[in-house]
Design a protein that fits this description.
Blueprint: H1 6-16, H2 37-72, H3 75-114, H4 128-141
Helix pairs in contact: 2-3
Amino acid sequence: MEKLTPEEIKKNLEENLPPVISSAQAPVAIPQPIKDEKDIDDDYEFSRKTYRDLVDKSNHAIDSMMELATNSEHPRAFEVLSTMLKNTSDMTQKLMDLQKDKKAIKKKTEEKAQATTTTNNNLFVGSTSDLQKHLLAKLSTDGVTDVH
């Protein structure tokens, strides 16, 4: 392996690495809302309306079935009534889960929008003695005189 001079190393780095951008020049990441936010809101409203309509219709059907079961005193009517009550309870729970899911999606979207990632990588190509010389030269230019 051929030993490179510091000038050659610098030249190679300049050719192969992108230019360094200072923090003042760095583009600011502007959080963008997800493209599907309108779709999420539309789907939520549609699902919510559908569940609410189903619960309302189920409540009316339960009232009718309760009257029928009471008048007929038939065991099958009470069995159907209990199934209807369970289904209505399940729909109400799904309506609540829908609300929780929407809040979780909104929270996750906001977290993604707020998350910014900065990665700073430094690469030194050369021997350890070259690195030590470079660091000592850097320290001496920064005004540090005593290095132990």
